[in-house]
Amino acid sequence: MTLQAKLLILYAICDSFFFGGFSGRIQLGIDLNEAANRLFRIMRAQFFAFSLWAVMVLQASGAYAENAHFSFSIMGIGAGYFQFDTVYDARNYTIMAELKSTGLVNLLRPFLYEAVARGRFSGNVFQPKSYEERARSGKKRYETWMSYRAGVPLPRKIVPPEPKDKYALDPATQKGAVDPVTALYAILRDVAPKQACKASVYVFDGSTRARISLDQRHTVGDQIRCQGEYRRIAGYSPKQMAEKQAFPFVLTYGHVENGQLQVVEVTIDTIYGVAKLQRR
Questions:
Q1: Among 34, 108, 213, 215, which residue has the fewest nearby CB atoms (within 10 Å)?
Q2: CA distances from 31 to 137, 157, 165 (A)
Q3: Whole-prediction pTM value?
Q4: b/e sequence 218-239, b meaning 16+ C-beta within 10 Å
Q5: How far, in Å, CA of 74 to CA of 77, rounded?
């Protein structure tokens, strides 16, 4: 494949990034007027002020911190980075995540995705309390909020409003499913050796339901490798389901000094070809 062809594919990827999940709503975005832009900036400032406050409160209470920074490439061409910072104690967690374009993708169609998820957990079971995200792709911007009651997501709020999706699922039917950032953390977090390759989580982003799972553990040299799958379940259009339902990936752990295992690489089979996350 020529470099020109790869660049054209990367341009397309910017509107259906990361399994076609995160930026699916950016594609439907509307250019904001000046009043909406002012509202966006105000909400953005409040969002980060509250998030930083929550992190400081948890740190002051003797909580633990975990962070990870991954570079992202498709077909060998750098596309961006994904990072998360997590603060947690025995029962509660706060995750701040960021996905940003770099390199050629940043020149073709820059994008930025930021999110904060909060909730409670016990072992491998996560129960979100709230989820907020904001994204930008060129001049298109959106913000969305989703809260939970007894493990059941409430209808999400979106600014600017989106056209109604006739395939979207009813949030009241999605008890037990977690938000996208909590799901990624459940898969990418540090784990004890005995817990490697044993994750499974259902994801609800406000309209669609999917499942991410890890199994089939293999030892390769001093690393541990898992087979994983991201599977679309419901809430997608017939075209999306016909296009692709299962996205296999390979997740590789490396050992760290504290005896835990840490994700060092994820290789993903996307609609546009093989993508790779590499820890930095």
A1: 34
A2: 11, 18, 19
A3: 0.81
A4: eeeeeebbbebbbbbbebbeee
A5: 5
Which position has the token pair 């998360």? 84
Paired tokens of 76: 């060998």
User: Per residue in 7-62, pLDDT tens?
Assistant: 444 444 443 444 444 433 333 233 333 433 444 444 444 445 545 555 555 555 56
- 117-127 CB burial, b ≥16 within 10 A, e <16: bbbebeeeebb
Q: Enter the tokens of residue 25.
A: 């709503």
Residues facing residue 152 across a β-bridge: 149
Terminal-to-terminal C-alpha distance of the chain:
27
CB 131 within 8 A of CB 181: yes
Instruction: Report the DSSP beta bridge partners of residue 159.
Output: 143
Task: Determine how many CB atoms are found less than 10 A away from the CB of residue 44.
Answer: 14
CB contact at 8 A, 72 and 277? yes
As a residue count, the chain comes to 280
Contacts within 8 Å (CB) and 24+ apart, 76-83: 77/6, 77/7, 77/10, 77/103, 77/104, 78/102, 78/103, 78/104, 78/105, 79/10, 79/13, 79/103, 79/104, 79/105, 79/275, 80/105, 80/106, 80/111, 81/280, 82/277
